[in-house]
Write a structure and sequence with these properties.
This protein is of the alpha+beta class. The protein has helices at residues 33-43, 74-86, 137-144, 174-179, 184-194, 231-243, and strands spanning 3-11, 20-25, 48-52, 59-64, 69-70, 96-103, 106-114, 120-125, 130-135, 157-161, 165-170, 198-203, 213-218, 251-256, 264-273, 276-284, 286-295. It is globular.
């Protein structure tokens, strides 16, 4: 029975058992789709990443939730690059490196640097933002267990993608985020009917001075009721905040996971032409908390 090396890496943190855990199979050659899905279901983390050789890039990476494959994932990219650098498969002897990863949506660059404190900081470039259809705020308030008045006025509830389409729901305050009581089946139905991956709820209030926003994230249809810290969604959120004039700072930090006991921090960088965001990068560090083997 073939055995594969597996790691669990906590992303967007330096502290074990915080941030967002990700399974990483750094040498996945020989695994087929059904086996990868079975491993992701067995690990039962929000995502598991599988690394393959690539003829077009430095690595080919695929991402699976417990129920399906997804095209782009933020915290698994941070976790995967951390794991590859830890194994010496990314050369950081000059202090920094750029690699390109082949995903199902194309080729995207990732910048990695070793900080003075020894941490590996990973910077992920996402796809150019795409703004999809606007959604009914009353329906989403009901699905989230809040009032329509709790959703920020004068801006839309809208599907935004920087590689993975996700519903953006801006709310008024941290208090609203704390009061969310999602109806998982309703959210799952909305995600499937709307052909987007997940629901991202956020506020411009933050717990710590100097941080710019706080978020929660739900992906019921993917078998992930609440995802602790989500890099792809925060990238789409950053594009949304810029487009609608809510945040016009090119760099800032977003909090997520604190309200469910897994605090993490995501660094954001936005490029834009006027009011139109053109490119988003997200960055963070990670820590490996488990190394082992899994038999297939």
């Amino acid at each position: 029975m073939p055995a594969y090396q597996v790691k669990i890496v906590d992303a967007f943190t330096r502290t074990p058992f915080t941030g967002n855990p990700c399974g990483v199979i750094t040498r996945a050659d020989g695994l087929n789709d059904a086996q990868m899905q079975a491993i992701a279901r067995e690990l039962n983390l929000s995502e598991t990443a599988f690394v393959f050789p690539s003829l077009r890039a430095d690595f080919r990476v695929r991402f699976f939730t417990p129920t399906k494959e997804i095209p782009l994932a933020g915290h698994p990219t941070i976790a995967t690059m951390h794991a590859l650098a830890e194994e010496g498969r990314i050369d950081l002897t000059p202090g920094r490196a750029r690699v390109v990863q082949e995903l199902s949506i194309g080729i995207l660059p990732v910048d990695i640097e070793r900080r003075d404190d020894g941490a590996v900081r990973v910077v992920m470039t996402q796809n150019p933002p795409e703004f999809g259809r606007r959604l009914d705020r009353t329906v989403y308030a009901q699905a989230l267990g809040i009032s329509p008045d709790d959703i920020l006025p004068d801006v839309p509830v809208q599907v935004v993608s920087t590689g993975t389409p996700q519903a953006m729901v801006p709310v008024r305050s941290l208090d609203v985020l704390r009061r969310l009581r999602p109806d998982w089946q309703h959210l799952s139905d909305l995600e499937q009917v709307g052909h987007y991956f997940s629901t991202h709820v956020f506020t411009l209030e933050a717990l710590e001075p100097g941080h710019r926003a706080h978020a929660r994230h739900f992906a019921a249809s993917a078998g992930v009721p609440e995802d602790p810290v989500t890099g792809s969604a925060i990238g789409a959120m950053a594009a949304y905040l810029w487009k609608y004039g809510l945040v016009r700072e090119p760099r800032y930090v977003v909090e997520q996971g604190h309200l469910i006991g897994r605090p993490g921090l995501v660094e954001v960088e936005v490029e834009a032409r006027g009011s139109e965001p053109t490119l988003v990068r997200i960055a963070g560090t990670a820590v490996t908390v488990l190394r082992g083997t899994i038999e297939v």
